[in-house]
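so im writing up the methods section and need the TonB-dependent receptor record in one place, dumping it here so i stop losing it
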Amino acid sequence: MNRIPTLSYVTTFVFALSAGTLPCVCASFAADLTDTQPAAKRSKSSRYAPGTTMASDRPARKDAGGVEEITVRSTRRTQRSSTIPASIVALSGNTLQTTGVRDALTLAHDVPGLMAETTSGSANPRYRLRGIGTNDFSANMTTAVGVSEDDVFLDSGASQGVPIYDLDHVEVFRGPQGTLQGKNTTAGTVNYYTKRPTNHLDGYVRGTAGNYGRLGEEGAIGGPIVKDRLMARFAITNQDFSGQYHDSYRKEDANGYQYYDMRGEILAKPTDNLSILVKGHIGRNKTDVELDHVGLLAGGKDDQGYAQTSARNLQNNGRSDATTRRSGLSVNAQYAFAHGWTLTDIFGLEWNHFNVFSDDDASPAPIDYQENIGGVARVLSNEIRVASPQSKKIRYIGGVYYMRNLTQSYSQQPLYSPVDFGAGGNASSFNINTQDAAVFSAISVDLMPRLTLDVGARFTSETRQANGEAWAYATQAGSPYNTSDRVLTYINTNTNTYIDPATGSAISGPTLKKTFNRDSEDASLKYRFNSNIMGYLRYARGFRTGNYNTYVATASDFSLYNPETLTDYEGGVKARLWKGRAQINLSGFHYDYDNMQVTILQNTGTHTTNAASAVSNGFEFEGQVRPLDNFLATFGVTYQDAHYTSFTNASAPTPFNGGNPVNLSGQPLERAPRVTANLLLSYTLPVSFGDFAFQTDWRYTSRYRFQAWSDATPTTPGALLSSAQAQALVRNAFSQKPVLMGNVRVAWHSLDKKTEVSFWMHNITNQLTYTNAFGEFFNGNISRYPGELRSFGFEVFRSL
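--- predicted struct ---
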């Protein structure tokens, strides 16, 4: 396999640091200019005077008996979520803990309109917001929902499966966030913020036990090392789960997981105006990913005569495990100038390796269609920005960003040879070198006492360079993943070799180096009707970068696709009512999607092309109400009509339409349910020895499909799918029917609130769900990924 070139991290960091020198100088100069106003004049201000920090813009607080509001930081300032002109969901770490959210996948249960799924374990999620996301599962995938952890953008998909523990809060921003967050955030962002070290000694331990072999330990401790100057925090989690399904072929439990993760943080404050936060983390996630089998022939059988007899009894005879390792180091340094300007430098270094084995035919049949895919990514990033004081009439944020991503993606498919399919194997190994440089700026102006204009823009220049090879090999019976016995090398970028395996003829390959220059911008008007009610209008445009297809089954699959662009028009109202006992948010949006990237899973391999345009129209209505001091209701409803407006030549697996294109114009986008709804009810009952908390939370999701083509009506179907019954089976197997899932939790808290004992049950109605599917049509079956069933357990928590 090709080796990943060595990365000169020192050179990269010096370059990014030097690029930030100019903003630093400008900040100091601007600080002097903004302070020329006489002190007496500056002190005069009315309640809504321009340049003042209004009550609605200050960091969040909880009104007496009111609902809690999270202070968000993804805007590069600390602001109350109700004052930001965007559709936002912010959830505290405590809320996520009580609703059973433990990782990136289960987060979707708590956020209306957010969808999450994976084909390789919870450490490699694929998010969708407002119907926008990706179906690509390769190591080289580009996401539409950006993910960051403590303001470090996680460019590699395998790093985005953030385990949720010792978390302060999470922020989900809907709509393009390209100005401050950068590329690949066309659908929005998910931003995790861990608990930071403080000047007070605190910590906790938590133990979990449940059915299906669920055992978990979690803990954290933090506090001062040198009072006011040096603080630290360390947290760790370890979780085991045997799985809720059974593999009768292997005679063992199936679809369980085991993962651990740990992080350490040191916060230094050598002077009153300088803080340096250093964080390191390391973890591993190993998940069993066995597949459900749907036969397309009579009696539910496939071409080899196998039929699955029970939804919970799987029989996979090939390897079916996914392992992801991730680690990282970040440094967040902030200097506060005397006049209120701040200079921030965020350096991040992330590494991950994910490796997935899949028994593709989901059966114990002797002809075993299986595969191994994976990759290694090394990502370095550095952002330097300056920010003006928030108390001025004109407020500014600007800076520079640099990122370098070296990703190697590989695959081995023992029976998927493009030369001798069903007998020989197919393998590939590609390296993608990405360099990204950007400059961004955002300004807020108080046009009138109640009216504020926010304008931002970002220019990104990104260069991608590819090299690698793909080859057919002779499969060895006892070692199917040994690819050394090559039959035909049909791609070799170093020798400019591109051969059509079917004919042996030479074909042309893609350009191996491409630079994309793109801009993102946003503008919003915010009007404050009073200190508790705000309305806004927002325009935003973002892009998802171009990339290479590296999960190949033939030479033509290795190709380059271009960036896509999404334009968002939206408006909304946010109101904090009833003396802080209610928070109501309403937003509506219209999306225009141009040059849309669509990933189609073929018979073997995937292919992403710029073949479509689409629109999405919808709204979100969500809020919190606390009618009594000890009763809280949280709700959310989203509606979206996301569909292709022009997609006349969509590709599909050969049997679906006889190898001919499919017209998907007017069809809904994949994984875009029209309606999602969330409801949480919590009641606290005080007793003489503490209190009991009763909580239930529910999520409704309307029907959605897994693949772009699966609901279309074929005009020239192959023999396998020619009957109406077979086509209906495809539509059902490639979709998730409407589902309502709920959890319950009962907890006792001690009088000092330091001890908690809780009992919980998840998926109390025991709904059988599926998260994805793909067609093994050459074997006469469809393979699906089953979801989690009902589970229960208890937890014991103790804090210092």
